[in-house]
Amino acid sequence: MAIDKDTARRVAHLARIRVEETELETLARELSGILEFMEQLAEVDVEGVEPMTSVTPMALKRRKDEVTDGGIRDKILANAPDARDGFFTVPKVVE
Amino acid sequence: MTQLTYREPPAKRIAGAVGEWEMVIGMEVHAQVSSKSKLFSGASTAFGAEPNTNVSLVDAAMPGMLPVINEFCIEQAVRAGLGLKAKINLFSVFDRKNYFYPDLPQGYQISQYKHPIVGEGEVLVDLEPGVARRVRIERIHLEQDAGKSIHDLDPELTYVDLNRTGVALMEIVSRPDIRSPEEAAEYVRKLRQILRYLGACDGNMQEGSLRADVNVSVCRPGDYERFRETGDPSVLGTRCEIKNMNSMRFIQQAIDYEARRQIAILEDGGTVEQETRLYDPNKGRTRSMRSKEEAHDYRYFPDPDLLPLTLEQAWVDAIAASLPELPDEKKARFVAQYGVTEYDASVLTAERESADFFEAVARGRDGKAAANWVINELFGRLNKEGRAISDSPVSAEQLGGVIDLIASGDISGKIAKDLFEILWTEGGDPARIVEERGMKQVTDEGAIEKAVDEVLAANPDKVEQAKAKPSLAGWFVGQVMKATQGKANPQAVNALVRRKLGVE
Questions:
Q1: ipTM value of the model?
Q2: Any B CB within 8 A of A50 CB
């Protein structure tokens, strides 16, 4: 599947990454290259092979249901460009 | 296990300008897991905290923070699945659902897409005695809640509170099997009841613990049956999704409005556009949420921070063995064991606590009498005073005592109500109160006869009238009951009065 310039522009926008119009052509070509490589991998016969989800024989780590965190509002808000009355504040989101 | 039998109701019809229409409704219910801490962080889930105080660095999506799953939330999702008779998937995967919004600091929601933790199940939605809709469940998956955006604190700014961010939700997705606004509300009510029985979700709709997204489309009679036969959704109309409703009443109103809106468009020769809408309860209308249209490309992919979730069948079996008796079974058992009506059984089993209370009262007593007292006297009074069953001033033991005193003939039904009042306001032991306050019913024939004779002697003119008009006997019975302060056995009085008047 080849990525064209329009798709590259749309994906960049969805990911909120600014890409200059002049860079789109190159980006589309590179993304297409990655997908083509994936398509090559897809040619390998994996019939009967379980998908590998991890390189180590580990299970998902779980924790107990206990409150061990929170109460650090100052730290949470420390990097916010703008914060008021304990809230993050951002330019009005129009619904 | 005893089971009640039900028939499915017909779909609701709406008369259009040209012919009749039906609606097809599917729902996505978001139920907050009753955990103390969040799905992937140790921050508290307590409602109503100061803004941004129940937030960890994981919830705020600080770089380098990693999610660690809460095992209680896994267990509750499995319990919910078992409670909805659903398939539990021993292998499930967490995915990232990508979109940008200020109350979602990660830029993605951790959810489950291709491999949810729970598969197909079903819910029996009771509508009236003997009538129920079987609604198929498609799946349940675990996901994170987003934060809260407040738009009305400032004209230029949106305020964001991340306390909710990362709280565990179970998204329960139904098939489009719901056929009227009333059924939709009853479906939510039934889900809520089951989840509360299981303890998986507190069901508090005011606090947002249970919210529903509703998919509504309209079609002509016969189309839905064709869809069920062929499985082809294209025979149905285009659907609209109404987001985020947390009231049964609004759910009904929104569906009703939305169905009529779509019918009007179609009858006008237009086409319904598939979109997300919001219900405005003040205006009683739904409106388009166009701002989110563009974000519908979520680019799901497996979350690389989380390994797949694998469960042991033995662990699932142990949870299944520990499930409480659920509403449908309990209701059927109440009907079979206590001889109460299906309607009364529904009322008694609405909440687990009330069902337990009833059983404590009914144990070793007449089930119908127990149901009558619990529903009419106790629930009636609790409702009137806005109290919960757990907060009842009259215990199951006390209420049982009242019923025993009626059964033994010690008090009449009328005196029993006075006794209930005393227990409600003052408390105490029913038998002792009856004894100490002289409330015992007079069953001694001699004493009753004496009272009857006195009344008859005092009213010779009425006696003459009654001989010609037997219905006047009731007046004498009333007079005797009054004279004995309600303590005489009414049946005995009635029999004696009639015999003495010769109007048997």
A1: 0.90
A2: no
